[in-house]
Amino acid sequence: MIVNNLIKATLIPGDGVGPEITEATLAALDALKAPFEWDRQVAGAAGVAACGEPLPKACLESIRGTRLALKGPLETPVGGGYRSINVQLREEFKLYANLRPGKTIVPGGRYDNIDLVLVRENNEGLYMGYEHFIPIDGDPHAVGMSTGVNTRQGCRRICRFAFDYAVKQGRKKVTAVHKANIMKALTGIFLETAREIYAAEYKDKFIFDEIIVDACAMKLVMNPWQFDMLVTTNLFGDILSDEIAGLVGGLGMAPGANIGEHAAIFEAVHGSAPDIAGKGIANPTALLLAAAMMLDHVGLTDKATRLRSDIDLVLNTDKVRTGDLGGTATTKEFTAALVKRLSAA
Ligand code: NAI
Questions:
Q1: Ligand 1 centroid to 189 CA: how many Å?
Q2: Ligand 1, CB cutoff 6 Å, lining residues
Q3: Nearest residue to 125 (alpha-carbon basis) of 257, 238, 243, 270
Q4: Of 1, 103, 265, 287, which residue is most buried, by most CB within 10 angstroms?
Q5: What residue numbers bound the domain in which 224 lies?
Q6: Which of 251, 267, 283 to mutate to test the pocket of ligand 1 (most atoms within 8 A of CB)?
Q7: pTM for the structure as a whole
Q8: 59 and 147 co-located in one domain
Q9: How many whole angstroms separate alpha carbon 232 and alpha carbon 60?
Q10: pLDDT per residue over 286-343, tens digit each?
Q11: For strand 125-136 and strand 139-149, is the pairing parallel, antiparallel, or unpaired?
Q12: Is position 89 within any domain?
């Protein structure tokens, strides 16, 4: 929503390192003169602390109004406790596509020249939370059950999203990742749909390929350059996108976008990093790159390109790097170096 030439957007700093990397990202966006008007909201553990609930109504209302959000990581209790707020937000706003590019910025790591894009289905599969325990002989958790659901409509939507992205970005190949040899219904429907949509609507626009998920995980480590774009179902996409983040220098470098018909939420792929929270050493690059994706999304591609290229200059020319990249810079030192670059004419 644009009001007075400002783009209204919701800002959720999040938990753990979230506020630190959010502050860094806002400083960079200010230096870029990005025309956002932020509506600050809380969720996750910060939501529980401030309002007694992990997904406060005010936060939902804000996103309903702005349809655009930049979000820091949100803590999810393991095992019991509340359901993942990230998953709830994806469901609430039907953010069916999760777009996760993995591109080498700092050369000289284990892998160089990586340029991969993973598109993950974000609303279906084994993430629907259709789970229960069956008690037997006094053991309340004797059996754990989970039901995954993939729909034809959902598979069509995610394949079209990935294929349209491939055409728009001039990608050469899209590989559908599945486990249709074992989960013949759950992921068979996805593979069948991907083949159909490609043959009917995208043939000759790029190469279409398919691979079983376990082989894909291995091949990504052996020779990641054989892939260009991957499209896959929810759980496989979650796992493979972290693997791809590992190929480009770790979670501190990986951005993600959750996109639906009515809203888009941009975030770092990593979590709240409780082990380093509050120490001032988190790498803000993932959230900065997510902000660049957000700038692209609203059509401010010049600013997105400038942000990406100045991040590159700070990391590679100025050699200002945080500890996860082998450097010694604090979050604030990295941010100051980036703001200096962005402020230069
Ligand atoms: P994590 O991603 O928070 O941390 C994994 C490792 O990567 C840690 O050693 C951490 O220090 C490091 N790391 C992460 N981000 C970094 C950064 N920006 N700079 C430097 N190092 C960084 O994963 P973990 O520990 O499994 O999850 C912690 C919490 O975050 C959990 O409650 C989890 O549910 C939540 N989470 C939230 C996500 C989201 O909001 N999108 C995504 C993933 C996890």
A1: 32
A2: 17, 21, 73-76, 86, 251-252, 267, 270-276, 282-283, 286, 324
A3: 238
A4: 287
A5: 106-232
A6: 251
A7: 0.93
A8: no
A9: 28
A10: 999 999 999 999 999 999 999 999 999 999 999 999 999 999 999 999 999 999 999 9
A11: antiparallel
A12: yes
